[in-house]
Amino acid sequence: MSDIEIARKANKKPIQEIGAKLGIGAEHLLPFGHDKAKVSAEFINSVQGNDDGNLILVTAINPTPAGEGKTTTTVGLGDGLNAIGKNACICIREASLGPNFGMKGGAAGGGYAQVVPMEDMNLHFTGDFHAITSAHSLLAAMVDNHIYWGNSLEIDTRRVVWRRVVDMNDRALRQITASLGGVSNGFPREAGFDITVASEVMAILCLANDLADLEKRLGDMIVAYRRDRSPVFCRDIKAEGAMTVLLKDAMQPNLVQTLENNPAFVHGGPFANIAHGCNSVVATKTALKLADYVVTEAGFGADLGAEKFMNIKCRKAGLSPKAVVIVATVRALKMNGGVARADLGAENVDAVKKGCANLGRHIENMSKYGVPAVVGINHFVTDTDAEVQAVKDYVASQGAEAVLCKHWALGSEGTKDLANRIVEVVEGGSAAYKPLYPDQMGLFEKIEAVAKGIYRADSVTADKKIKDQLKQWEEAGYGNLPVCMAKTQYSFTTDQNWRGAPTGFDIPVREVRLSAGAGFVVAICGEIMTMPGLPRVPAAESIHLNEAGEIEGLF
Predict the structure, then answer these.
(1) Do residues 419 and 83 make contact, with C-beta atoms less than 8 angstroms apart?
(2) What is the 3-state secondary structure (H, E, C) of 91-132?
(3) 32/50 same-domain check
């Protein structure tokens, strides 16, 4: 059966029963239908005195068209931990409409390791993304409105940095001219759109601790500069209060369930290649107060999602992960070893061994954060015993262990070995989390630390104006912020076609952006776009309702 057919046959329980597993009373759940609900801020505040559970991060090798199954493994491990008697909860991100209708597909897992309701999660869900888009758009409208009505803040209209957003892949909106049509429409200027998941509002929602923190961070966002280069903040526009009102419900984590009726928080959704790629701090911290084990994921490969999880989310939220699972498939390793996608079904142990260089680099990188790593081999039916053994042997040579996982086909029964191994690692107590670089390091030096230490670049190249901009932000008091690297997810380099574990390359920084409210500096590298485009044949062409009124083609 296909993923969506499996999801439709799910024996879902009322969301109140799922909440009860975590000790959440029905009065603290705001239901959206029968199978999803938001958790009240009142309840979240009431459990802050509880001890924290153990945080497990699931990451992966660099993604390939062959698939890695990071979310599937996250769900499978959460189910597996519950199956061996642990009280476990899953924390993942919400899906963006842009990739769903483009080429990525859904973000709810797959096979018998899924979070449901799958269709709702991949579409409008509980409206969080719409609220973020609306709050972001309100600020954009208020900035232009302020300029129209006299511009008392003396905003330099050439230096308005607050772009607009829409939750769709639409390359035509990357660069636009706004306010055309005469005096009544304002002052013409260049503008542009990013995708909603790249919005600083999204990043703030996912990093804020509560509504008060959310409102302060929104007020700290820089929207424009004056002619003297002094910043104009969101609080100067007086928009943060109304934006917080729009985000009030979106700030509450969403509770759903796996196919095996285990609890899952699905909340927030920043992209990992152009933002920090982690679910919300509120959801993660709440789960840690309610469960003994919390399994979360970070987007794309470990060079992006896991790096930002460790250096941004954990640093800012005071989190200390106890173990990391690095997901790999034999198929993806063969692609990293040079095998064409059409030939992945044939056994090729040599290609697996060659492709393991990518996996090895991620294993080595994770050790730099002081957190022990286990490799989860996401099993495909085409994998041969020799290929799987080649991965296990290679991982053992790197001082780690690889565990074969069959959750796609078997659900929790296929991840009990991984679950038991994770429990052993956690109870062994060897984790000593530390970020890659200190707060006090200069901004450009932090970019170099990631580029050289994680990507293995020879150097970072940037124009003088970019380095000068970073120095100005340091002088303005932003030097202690971490950096958020925006680059392709497909390679350690900025060339998406350069797979494996490349060396002998530079990382070009094209632009830097200050996300003062979120609390990081974005370094845009290579040709990465903050507004993606649709592929030649978008997934939207095959998405439709069948005669029974069911959604087809979404996953």
Answers:
(1) yes
(2) EECCCCHHHHHCCCCCCCEECCEEEECHHHHHCCCCCHHHHH
(3) yes
Measured between alpha carbons, how far is 315 from 308 in angstroms, rounded to an integer?
9
Residue 256 included in any domain? yes
Return the closest-CA partner of residue 161 out of 204, 207, 222: 222
Q: Which of 361, 515, 529, 364 is nearest to 443 (CA)?
A: 515
Q: Are residues 82 and 137 in the same domain?
A: no
- Determine how many CB atoms are found less than 10 A away from the CB of residue 343: 11
**Residues forming beta bridges with residue 58, ordered by sequence position:** 297, 325
pLDDT in tens, 429-483: 988 999 999 999 999 999 999 999 999 999 999 999 999 999 999 999 999 999 9
Sign of CA dihedral 102, 299, 59, 490: positive
pLDDT surpasses 80 at 384: yes
Q: Contact, 193 vs 166, CB < 8 A?
A: yes
Give the DSSP H or E segment for 506.
Answer: strand 506-515
Segments forming the whole domain that contains residue 11:
3-126+250-428
Beta bridge partner(s), residue 195: 166
pTM of the model: 0.94
For 404-469, what is the HEC assignment?
A: EECHHHHHHHHCHHHHHHHHHHHHHCCCCCCCCCCCCCCHHHHHHHHHHHHHCCCEEECCHHHHHH
Q: Quickly state the pLDDT bin for 296 (edges 50, 70, 90).
A: very high
Contact 359, 392 (CB under 8 A): no
For the segment 246-257, the average pLDDT, to the nearest whole number, is: 97
Which tokens is 286 given? 């709440």
pLDDT digits (tens, 9 = 90+) for 331-363: 999 999 999 988 998 999 999 999 999 999 999
Q: What are the catalytic residues?
A: 70, 72, 93, 104, 272, 300, 380, 408
Count of domains in the chain? 3
Instruction: Report pLDDT digits (tens) over 521-532.
Output: 999 999 888 898
Q: Is residue 104 located within the same domain as residue 152? A: no
Q: Are residues 409 and 462 in the same domain?
A: no
* Helix ranges, 166-259 (H): 200-207, 211-220, 234-237, 240-247
| pLDDT higher than threshold 80 for residue 279 | yes
pLDDT, one tens digit per residue, over 458-471 is 999 999 999 999 99
Report the mean per-residue pLDDT for the chain: 94
Place of tokens 């991949």: 122
- Which tokens is 482 given? 């971490």
Residue 106 scores a pLDDT above 80: no
Strands 520-525 and 483-486: parallel
Whether residue 270 is found in the same domain as residue 350: yes
For residue 16, with 0-12 CB atoms within 10 Å meaning exposed, 13-18 middle and 19 or more buried, which class applies? middle
